[in-house]
Design brief:
alpha/beta; four-stranded mixed sheet; two-stranded parallel sheet; 10 strands; disordered C terminus
Length: 313
């Protein structure tokens, strides 16, 4: 637990491992302070107390250490980095002991400070790619990845991807069934893998303030099975077809047709991952045939429906 910790970075993984205990995994959860203070204030102002000192623990290959993200302003403070030198040395030792060392979001900066990421690969939050690459040139930064696993070192992009990484670790130790049961318990219907992008199509292309384009995107998202023509969509948002197609491309950077294809690909992968029949998925996504679904998946993700089987119920 670093000072100014991001709440979901710590609470997401903590809840996944709590659920694992509820499902019978032989786990003990400990919350430790990297500055050996028993109380820490989070970035949101919520306090955590009764934390344990890190140097009380000697980890083995049966242990998992999660280092959550924190405010970048502290990470860039030289005085702070010098003050946590004992913790960084401790992490290096636990890595040599074979423990699984995991980071969430900007926690990767702390991992890199230890040196254990030198000549290794990792990821971090997309907002800090440049800063990470400049500070740690010996580490191979993998961009637009939810999480990266390299031997016993694992890093995730931030916030909800810490949950994805936690499920990956649960699966490693306790099997696929438990990971799937936990995903259902916490209402994560579609478990994401390390190869998935940090920003899904439902979040991509939405970084704008044009409410009519947002309305058009929402309508397409909610009506994939019976997607409107461009003319019908224009009527829904009170625009001419010509103005909508021009404004959509200028605002999002892609055409309405391209956006619709991306929506269909993402939804089809989610449905297939949860065991839906291929022909049903094609219908739900507004496609005329299974062949059309195969074409879109091959074009956008270089996969076929039969490849998406690892997460079936």
């Amino acid at each position: 637990m670093p000072p100014e910790v991001h709440l979901l970075d710590i609470n997401g993984p903590a809840h996944i491992f709590y659920e694992a205990k509820e499902f019978g995994a032989p786990l003990e959860l400990h919350f430790i302070s990297l500055i050996n203070e028993t109380e820490i204030k989070s970035s949101a102002g919520l306090y955590f107390n009764r934390l344990e000192p890190f140097d009380k623990f000697e980890l083995t290959e049966n242990d998992i250490l999660f280092i959550p993200g924190m405010e970048y302003g502290i990470l860039s403070d030289v005085t702070f980095r010098e003050s946590i030198s004992p913790f960084l040395s401790w992490v290096r030792k636990q890595n040599k002991n074979g423990a699984d060392i995991c980071s969430v979001c900007t926690g990767s900066f702390l991992l890199a400070e230890t040196g254990i990421l030198d000549k290794n690969s990792c990821t971090t939050h997309w907002k800090y790619y440049r800063e990470f690459s400049e500070r740690f040139p010996l580490t191979e930064l993998e961009r637009n990845r939810l999480f990266v696993s390299s031997r016993n070192i694992h890093s995730s992009a931030g916030v909800s991807s810490g949950i994805d990484l936690s499920l990956f670790i649960v699966e490693k130790y306790f099997g696929t069934k438990m990971a799937l049961d936990i995903a259902k318990e916490v209402v994560i219907y579609f478990r994401r893998s390390s190869s998935d992008p940090q920003l899904s199509i439902f979040l991509q292309f939405r970084n704008h303030l044009n409410h009519r384009i947002h309305d058009a995107q929402d309508y397409l998202m909610n009506n994939l099975a019976n997607a409107p023509t461009n003319e019908e969509l224009a009527d829904k948002v009170n625009m001419s077809k010509r103005n909508l197609t021009r404004l959509f491309k200028r605002t999002t950077g892609i055409t309405i047709g391209e956006y619709l294809q991306k929506l269909r690909v993402e939804k089809s992968i989610a449905l297939l991952s949860n065991g839906h029949k291929v022909h049903t998925v094609a219908e739900e996504c507004g496609l005329k045939s299974v062949n059309q679904l195969r074409y879109l998946l091959k074009k956008h993700r270089d996969i076929l429906p039969m490849d998406i089987s690892s997460l079936k119920n």
